[in-house]
Amino acid sequence: MEWNFQTAERLAAALRTGEVTSAELTDEAIARIERDDKVINSICVPDFDRARAAARDADQARARGEDRPLLGIPVTVKESYNMAGLPTTWGMPQCRDYVPAEDAVQVSRLKAAGAVVLGKTNVPLGLQDVQSFNEIYGTTNNPWDHSRTSGGSSGGSAAALASGFGALSIGSDLAGSLRIPAHFCGVYAHKPTLGLAASRGMVPPPAPALPTDLDLAVVGPMARTARDLALLLDVMAGPDPLTLGVAHQLTLPPARHERLCDFRVLVLDEHPLIPTGAAVRAGVNRVADALVDGGARVERHSPLLPDLAEAATLYTQFLFSSSAARFPIEGYEQLLARAAGLSADDRSLDAARLRGMALSHLDWIEANNRRELHRHGWRQFFAEFDAVVCPITPTPAFPHDHRPNLLERRIDIDGVEYPYFDQLVWAGLATMPGLPATAVPAGRSPEGLPVGVQLIAPMFHDRTSLRLAELLEQKIGGFQEPK
């Protein structure tokens, strides 16, 4: 049997019955990587010798009667996670020789669950792009069309999954970095509720791996099925054992519903600040039709929905405030002068980006107060609805664009160009208030490119969007192997 595209759930069952060994799965995965990754370039740091040793250990453990959630299953890890003995560079040339001494907490959890790590997957420079390329490791191509991006910043992980290089991967998400690559490559990803999964050791090199609380950013699972996402989230979820884990134990609430007919869903395909391309709109509508056909209550409008334009502006300010925090003082002073020159009437996202980069602490506190109002609005909204279905970006995967100045890049939406970073407003809808969101395949564009949508759920109701993703997978299908 060809094992490389089997689900983690199927592999676990086969391993338990002795139908296959971890050594066999690992050798088959490595052979496929060595054959196919020359053109995809997703596995930037192979770790095949240690993977084979871990697979042998897994087989021996199973022979002793052990059984762990991922025992013997081949997986990959985003390059930005620390792994002892392997470089962690975040694609930054000055860090090409940095090798951490300890595993990130999530790498430790993977290994404790019995996973076999095949290697690390490619990322953009500093994780700050919607594409995955850097001077150290080169460009990761989309498995469906090598002239197009696989997405970023977890683009290497998404491309690896779509190519059959391991059954699972772990990534991170600040600006859609789990959901956008999943959408572009036709796989699944889950952005957990903010703070649900510990992120220690997923830190820019050579900074120390401290248990800090991040604003906006999360770590999360990627897979080829919704059930596999849930399996991996159970391994990843939980507080850092150095801080909240000293006193807290995690118990996520169950999914609100088990049947599609019981879900109450708001479907969005329009944003006030950027149009939605025809291919993505068709994907959203395909999911909406499946929900209606399954008996779900589907609405297209609700007065309870927090203001999308203000949400996008707040998200943009928080995002760019963080990115500019380590600018040299001279550059920061220039940003302050430019921001001061903006018209008070300029409410564009370009202006929000500049204001965000020049945000004072006082202004950040005021913006955070507005964010809390949005969070309260979402609590009221989710008293009436169980989930939101909406785009992840306005388009499918776009052609590689490596112009150094990201602010000069443009995104083509049905023949009209828009600022490159404007496409992030949909990703920010869940990120700004810290809500969970699951990316699911929703069909193909006329050019044959994958199209995904995201399912946004109430805070800490991650199992609700994951269950809805599973029901939709049963209804409309899910991952397909690239042809």
TrEMBL record:
Coiled coil: none annotated. Pfam families: Amidase. One of its GO terms (cellular component) is endomembrane system. Residues 24-464 form the Amidase domain. PANTHER family: FATTY-ACID AMIDE HYDROLASE (PTHR43372), FATTY-ACID AMIDE HYDROLASE 2 (PTHR43372:SF4). This is Amidase. InterPro entries: Amidase_CS (IPR020556), Amidase_dom (IPR023631), AS_sf (IPR036928), FAAH2 (IPR052739).
